[in-house]
Amino acid sequence: xxxxxxxxxxxxxxxxxxxxxxxxxxxxxxxxxxxxxxxxxxxxxxxxxxxxxxxxxxxxxxxxxxxxxxxxxxxxxxxxxxxxxxxxxxxxxxxxxxxxxxxxxxxxxxxxxxxxxxxxxxxxxxxxxxxxxxxxxxxxxxxxxxxxxxxxxxxxxxxxxxxxxxxxxxxxxxxxxxxxxxxxxxxxxxxxxxxxxxxxxxxxxxxxxxxxxxxxxxxxxxxxxxxxxxxxxxxxxxxxxxxxxxxxxxxxxxxxxxxxxxxxxxxxxxxxxxxxxxxxxxxxxxxxxxxxxxxxxxxxxxxxxxxxxxxxxxxxxxxxxxxxxxxxxxxxxxxxxxxxxxxxxxxxxxxxxxxxxxxxxxxxxxxxxxxxxxxxxxxxxxxxxxxxxxxxxxxxxxxxxxxxxxxxxxxxxxxxxxxxx
Length: 421
Hints:
The protein is an all-alpha fold. The chain contains 16 helices and no strands.
């Protein structure tokens, strides 16, 4: 690990005298989160119920989504500089409107899958920009509050989207695509007519990079804690999304979910999203976790146990325990939501506070999400294809990845203690 006074990754912060109204940013973020969860996390309820897909096909779709997500997230900084933030947000949401409408107006499975994959990089372009707009110009304590509000908005609307997805499917499967089309068009209009404060010569926030290693001044001990927390969260962030997207692809096919009405099934599947929202509420209202990077190790360990609690139903062990399947699924989701909330918040907060709210950092943060989505479902698809008659093969492989991540985090923490001690 490098000197804590220097950020391990080279950030090119794109600070600017322009500011968009925070309300416009949060409203847009909430709408985009609702839409994205329908076509990203929740799409597997659509593929399972409408296409009758199995676990391997769901895993492959999730892997493809992850690949294009990483590419788009890493490209956001350059596109933001070349086009400007407003143009990028408006243009991508107009394209998202067209993609969503196209999926709603066709019954062709190959075309719908292609459009879903096209949707992912377009939505990925929005998150780093919105994260920067919501964060820039804030001191560390205020930044923590803003990130807390930001997380509450997207997590709350995302949970709502998954909770109602089954009802939309029962009403009309095309509603899963029509709703995002309306929301993306609205988002494009909002940013087309929202003028940034302090704009000069038509600037919309794309400005030259500052010192790549710039960071707010802080006491050496505090800076070391923040840097360690950033490393731990960066190690855990891909693992968190290995879990999230493996669970998303598995959820409609788990024994407790079979036979449930779609509206009830997606309501049950949204428990971890509600739990994550509560975690964001707690973390946004407190600062105790700012100086306790060790909490991230506990979160990584509990996340692994929660993953097993969700994916390995008691009925797999003993058929007589089938009655415990649903309670176990709900309880494990509660634990999972809190651990995911801490890991995500730490990754975004410590990265933003150390990089002075750069879009480049936000892009790295989102790219780690995509990397987890590639790794988890990819390994799951490979192992289930190799051992199709063993339903827990993919779960075992993913658990191995999570354990390796936990070991890596423990090694990083141990090195930091030895260096600082």
